[in-house]
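Incident log entry.

Two folding requests arrived from the same account within the same minute. Monitoring flagged them as a possible duplicate submission, but the sequences differ. Recording both here for audit purposes.

Request one:
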Amino acid sequence: MKASVVDLEVDPALDLDPKIQEELIEFANGLDRPYHELLGVAADADARAIKKAYFQKAKRFHPDRYFRKNLGEFMPVVETCFKKLLEAYELLSDPATREEVQRGEKARAAKAARAPVGQDAAAPNAEPAKPRMSGAEAAKRLRRRMGGLQGHHKAKKERKQKAKTFFESGMAAFRSDRWLEAAGSVRLAMAFDPANDVYREEFVKVQRKAHEERAKQLTRTAEGALDLRNYQEGFDALEEAFYYRPFDAELAIRGAKIAWQGIGDLRKAKDLASSACELEPEQAEYHRVLGQIYKAADLTANAKRELETAIRLDPKDKEAKTELRGL
């Protein structure tokens, strides 16, 4: 990043909510934490909890949400935080890569535990000095230690070779526009060799492209289902597409309308409409739809608040005025 995160301060003049600025500073100052801590979930969290945690943060950290907005020195911070967030989610959500990640974390923890710790010889609890070993005993211990090191280096070399093979396969798929296949292979390369900076950089590029492709596929599926008035299938596809494009307010409001008018799920309709309002707070239509959903749920005070907001943003919104008079 161009700017030191530690030196950054909240700037109300930016096109970035001050609360999100604070979140970014805190997140960026802890990028070396284990993946589950970055996501804010337990080490044994299930796939659903991991996905939910990623989605909530991605809505706020996704760089595409701030396209053409003034982020000042926070611009590289947003990009860096999202890359790490995406990396954490993708490696923990896939069972195979999660196993590799956890194996690596356990190995690092064990290595840290074996590290010698200085101890004051005069300390009252210090252990008495051990008797000197004979030359034969010392040689035997050295051979055992060297054998263990050789085994460790061999395993490490094998893991790096596996990572290289997966990476090359993934990049070949990427060059052929097979985004989803590429993402799976590069994800495995990252899991086997997480310290490789080249893999990390390409991983995010590939994964973002794969997300875009998946969102397009799901949107096409939704449109086909809605043409046949299969509202549940259409909604499910749109809801999943929004997960892959958490910065897309228009996608969220489409899903909200179908949940409300098509399948009658007011809770999901409210969640999606609220997301749209959070992403684009100046869009009168989004507040009107949220107000209508609250009205359908008999939440009069909430409906009144959102409809009045819609009218304030767009005094010509006749539908909002009609809905408000009906409360």
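Request two (distinct sequence, not a duplicate):
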Amino acid sequence: MPDFDPTPAHQFFSAHCFNSAWELINKPERTPAENDQMIQRTMASLWHWTQREDCTDQNLSIGYWQASRVYALADEPDNARKYAERCLDITPADAPFYLGYAHEAMARAAALAGDASLANEHLETAKQFAANITEPENRKMLEADLQTLA
């Protein structure tokens, strides 16, 4: 086998797959095949991140959040909750933006599963974290996503 340094490939594909998943996330309607592609791109991104030496808990938090979102969009509540829980577990305690999104993912997964009480609990917690975000654009982005759950 020829010498091959996978580091640049992991760097490229972790970002490329993450970004290309957004093309499908942002589509108002997707076919079942597009849902599969959206999930596969997200999971490929997440795997490539785990292979990078510079991978942090924050990177994994973002990857788990995206996985939860795509599974919610694909109407797979169990997987949406699984990755929302992973997101919540790994998100650094001093990161209100990421914690807000971890709770947003939990609220979305719970709502999809029909657990209104749990969804509301996480929605309220996400709103509390949003109020503590100092960067106005980040706060606005999270609050806009939380509005889609209200």
